[in-house]
């Protein structure tokens, strides 16, 4: 971070912010395009990264000051999973929803005809070949969860590999993959190229799930809390602007530029706007409910890491509190003006909204995400078998498959 790169910006703090070319990097783009950063004495330098691994490594090496990052990336680095351990600061949530799972056209057709995923895998006669974007990331956990809910063990019945989001289309075109989980607009891209078809919206797995976060190293947040607070304020303004429907076309036009996504604005908007499979829209602000960093969200990821044998540590609550810089978030000057009630829908560590807060109806929960047994059960246990039966019905895997599992 520098304060004197350009004479005209001598009073601005230059902040290098990493991002990946995804629709949900929009808050960074909007902050730069509208000059919101300068309102708070900052000059953001957006730096596009080729992969989440590269973004992580450059953040840890001090080549980036902050980043648009997967929620699970921050958790993984905090725990030292798959790379060096470094204490991180999760400053705010940038968006919720907006991801998905796509399958090859032939498998997607079977899915829509009512075949269960386990049945589709049996027909293939080999493990499913699937991809996500980072080992501890959100896409890996959405994919694992979705597979397990349908009696497909993600570590035994599938071969999951890591591929950067922009490379998913090429992998699908060559036939190297049967499907993938990633963010938009890459599902729109593979649909346009005819090599994949969206079968599940991430909000059907966890309604209003956390997705990308604004993160930095903990030492930066602790040395310069006022700067971190200014960065939060800047991106809160951007998120608020993005949630105005009239601004989506302009945002898509900016994202279409080569420095950001380098894709047609129409492609970017295709799944940003409402579409048939959309369980909940991509949200950046939602009257302030999107953005507070939440320990409950971190706890869910830690539970999933334990479930899949990625991590077997303890002290989950302490880890979540250390990672989520709620104090810094509260200090951001504009948060108080945007508080709407509690400012966030209350939910448990399994993503289930609090009944009293939302009037949540179990009969409307199609994804089975609310079943609290999911975090504790083993893949082979009776508790999981019963849970998977219910998930099969909720996900409409197929009448015959669901009936057979329910009877079993």
Automatic annotation (TrEMBL):
Q: Is Cell membrane given among the entry's keywords?
A: yes
> Where can this protein be found?
Endomembrane system
Q: Does the keyword Transferase apply?
A: no
This entry carries the following GO cellular component terms, namely: endomembrane system
**Where is the major localization of this protein?**
membrane
Question: InterPro entries annotated for this entry?
Answer: NrtA/CpmA_ABC-bd_dom
**Keywords in UniProt for this one?**
Cell inner membrane, Cell membrane, Membrane, Signal, Transport
Which branch of life, at top level? Bacteria
The UniProt entry, under SUPFAM superfamilies, shows: Periplasmic binding protein-like II
Q: What is this protein called?
A: Nitrate transport protein NrtA
